[in-house]
Amino acid sequence: MNRAINCHVGCRCSHLTIEVSHGSYRNFTQRFVKAVVNTYKDLIEWPKNEHRVAEIKNGFMYGEGRNAWGLPAVGALDGKNFVIESETVHAEDWRDCKGNFSMKLMAVCDDKSKFTYISAGNSGRSHDAAAFNLSEIATVAMENHGEYFPLDGYILADSAYPLSHYIIVPYPASEVLGRSGGASAKKKFNKIHSSTRKAVERAFGILVSGRRFVSKHIYIKDTGDIVGIIIAYYILHNLCIEMNDPVLEEDNDETSNVDVARPDSFIQSVNSTAYQNGRIRRHSINPYFPSQQ
Question: Which parts of the sequence belong to the DDE Tnp4 domain (predicted)?
Answer without folding.
Answer: 77-238
